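[audit] Reproducing an earlier prediction to check determinism. Same input, same settings, fresh worker. If the tokens differ from the archived copy the diff job will pick it up downstream; this log only records the rerun itself.
[audit] input (356 residues):
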Amino acid sequence: MSEFINLSRRGFLGTTALALAAAPFASWPSSAAAAETARAQADSASSIVSSIRRGAHTSMGTIKQIDAGLLNVGYAEAGPANGPVVILLHGWPYDIHSYVDVMPALAAAGFRVIVPHTRGHGTTRFLSDSTPRNGQQSAVALDTIALMDALKIDTAILAGYDWGSRTACSIAALWPERCRAIVSANGYIINSLEANKKPLPPKAELGWWYQYYFATERGRAGLEANRHDFAKLIWQDNSPAWHFDDATFDRSAASFDNPDYVAVVIHNYRWRLSLAEGEPRYDTFEQRLQRAPTIDVPAITLDGDANGVAPASDGSSYRKKFTGEYVHRIVAGAGHNLPQEAPDAFTQAVLDVARM
């Protein structure tokens, strides 16, 4: 299925879509009793999604810690332990609070929801001082695989934006057996190092000014000295229609005090521009990602039409990269941090992709 939908933030709740999203995952009900149960679940999900209000929640609850691969990962968790798993992946310069309103809604709908701090953020720490503070895409993706292994999760729905979308897309492409489906704000954004060497039109280049700043030692020093102010400026540029308050920003900004934050962020952006080497241990995975592999699992891609850095599109430029069931949606009024700005639309996308 291929579908293009333009969504207003409140006008997209359909009974059929919600029945699909909320029904049990094994099979569609075949008896009248099962169908009635599915309808009741759909009604419940409809109530959950329609009641979401941006900014209604402020806490991610108790942060748990677990050793996973190269890291001790800090993560929030909500929902039934035996529920179908959704892993929500944040971007930069943001943190797990991007999902502060999405997590409780999905938990109320019966999902087990995991929201990890990316390496270099929040309470996540490297287990060894000798591990390179690497931000390349396959390293970050493997962190999520390691977390799934540590939590004994075989497969999950992966949903993200920005860096989180890149991780979701990378895992879906390289390890589809671990990925039930994905929701990817910003589309198909697996990095191509060759493509990144090509110039963009001047206006587009302007939007990525910080990447070129980070290519310099002055940029590294600037990020180190101004972590919070730098992030706030990016928030404002990325989401010009989102008038967040200081308390909202400060809750996320605490995550930027991680001792590895600057090193991971700088390496990520220098690696993208081929100005920093990756680690040999990831070469095989990067070689596969550089071929821009297709994604075969069900997928919903989202664009906010108020995104200040990555303008919304109809998804046609990357449509052929999604070979499974697929829907593209534009969310009115949302900027780059889509799950925090439009938590209802993001939650709906997760519910919908769960039954594709």
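[audit] rerun output stored. Observation attached for the diff report: The first strand starts at residue 2 and ends at 7.
[audit] end
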